[in-house]
């Protein structure tokens, strides 16, 4: 796992997706977090960041990811990063 510095991300109008837990490879109805689609302007990259709680974020506003942790993985022969954070805090 890697600690990530994500101080300025742009929110989108996409609604957060519920992330469900799995037991023995089977999806359960238990929600373990919510995934937000954000844009890292400095890297011109779309990021999906998962929080444990659901929060309201206005579209097209800047936020900072608090205590972001990334875990690299391979899916469909492509490298990707699973990112979790404690919070997304609006910037002024």
Task: Sum up the structure in keywords.
single chain, 92 residues, mainly beta, OB fold (Dihydrolipoamide Acetyltransferase, E2P), nine-stranded mixed β-sheet, 9 strands, 0% helix, globular
What does this structure look like?
The chain is mainly β and 92 residues long. The protein has one domain (2-90): OB fold (Dihydrolipoamide Acetyltransferase, E2P), CATH 2.40.50.390. The protein contains no helices and 9 strands. It has strands spanning 2-4, 9-11, 17-23, 26-40, 45-51, 62-66, 68-75, 78-84, 87-90. Strands 1, 2, 3, 4, 5, 6, 7, 8 and 9 form a 9-stranded mixed beta sheet that branches.
Summed up:
With 92 residues, the protein is mostly beta strands. Helices cover 0% and strands 64% of the residues. The termini are far apart.
At the fourth level of CATH, the homologous superfamily is: Conjugative transposon protein, DUF961
Beta fraction: over 45%
Shape: globular
Number of domains: 1
Number of helices: 0
CATH architectural group: Beta Barrel
Please give the radius of gyration in angstroms: 14 Å
Q: Mean pLDDT score, rounded?
A: 95
Largest sheet: 9 strands, mixed
- Give the proportion of residues in helices: under 10%
Order of helices and strands: EEEEEEEEE
CATH class: Mainly Beta
Could you tell me the CATH topology label.
OB fold (Dihydrolipoamide Acetyltransferase, E2P)
Q: What structural category do the secondary elements indicate?
A: mainly beta
**Number of E-type strands:** 9
End-to-end Cα distance, whole Å, is: 30 Å
Uncertain parts: none
């Amino acid at each position: 796992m890697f600690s990530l510095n994500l101080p300025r991300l742009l929110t989108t109008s996409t609604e957060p997706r519920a992330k469900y837990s799995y037991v023995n490879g089977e999806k359960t109805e238990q929600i373990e977090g919510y995934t937000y689609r954000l844009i890292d302007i400095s890297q011109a990259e779309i990021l999906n960041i998962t929080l444990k709680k659901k929060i309201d974020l206005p579209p097209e506003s800047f936020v900072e990811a608090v205590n972001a942790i990334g875990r690299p993985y391979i899916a469909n022969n492509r490298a990707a990063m699973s990112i979790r954070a404690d919070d997304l805090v609006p910037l002024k």
